[in-house]
Amino acid sequence: MTAEELKKHLDVLELGPRATSSEIKNAYLRLRKLYGGDSIVLDPIAEEFSDKKRAKILQEIEEAYAALLKAGRERDQIAAPRIESPAPTFPENRPAGAASAKPSGPAETAPGPVESPPDLVFSGPVLRAVREKLGIELLEISKNLKLRGELLKSMEEERYEALPEEIYLKVHLKNLAGCLHLRPAKVVDDYVARYREWKSKR
């Protein structure tokens, strides 16, 4: 495999050139879960993220992972388990957002922060949709973060006038993202951008 091909496969799995075998496996599992039919993060934009697009991305992920495994075996550098099943197929005539079977594959590790597609913007309503999909009540988050439930509700409803100054808001958003298994930086950047836009129009 050429250096260019190796970089291409690593890019598909969102990894750097020094990725370890463990990081490759975890990235593969994470991306399969993200782009699977029951993805929590993709639910809010299911209509925009077609099954055909998901299937194409899943196929690229499978091909990249298989190529990296092969390269690792040849060089005796990357030790990782074999792929147990092909990427799932998604009938193009299935209604967007309809439930589909979970892709079978290697045993998954404990859930960590979920990668989000670049076109997904974490607004208040999207954060609420993710929370509800996870079955987490606001009261539970309120107790865990020691924040007033009304403040959390204001964040979800984007009632910016009821929110604290930006420096404090960023901290609350970072902690909230952790509770929802989302990448804090992405959540903070998206939400604060909308907050600043509202503030600039006042």
Please provide a written account of the structure:
- This protein is mostly helical and 202 residues long.
- The chain is 54% helix and 0% strand.
- The protein has 8 helices and no strands.
- The protein has helices at residues 3-12, 21-35, 51-75, 124-134, 138-145, 149-157, 166-179, 184-200.
- α2 runs antiparallel to α3 (51-75) and α7 packs antiparallel against α8.
- The longest helix is centred in the first third of the chain and has 25 residues, at 51-75.
- It is elongated and about 55 Å long.
- The termini are far apart.
- Residues 76-111 have low confidence and may be disordered.
Structural class: mainly alpha
What integer is the average pLDDT? Answer: 74
> What integer value in Å does the Rg equal?
19 Å
Q: What global shape is seen? A: elongated
- Continuous helix count: 8
Give a quick account of the main beta sheet: strands, pairing sense, barrel closure: none
Unreliable runs, pLDDT <50, ≥5 residues?
76-111
Q: In what range is the share of β-strand residues?
A: under 5%
- For the terminal residues, how far apart are their CA atoms? 56 Å
Oligomer: single chain
Order of helices and strands: HHHHHHHH
Helix content: 40-55%
Compute the number of strand runs: 0
List the helices and strands and how they pair.
Elements: H1 3-12, H2 21-35, H3 51-75, H4 124-134, H5 138-145, H6 149-157, H7 166-179, H8 184-200
Helix pairs in contact: 1-3, 2-3, 7-8
Q: What's the short version?
A:
The chain is mainly alpha-helical. 54% of the residues lie in helices and 0% in strands. It has helices at 3-12, 21-35, 51-75, 124-134, 138-145, 149-157, 166-179, 184-200.
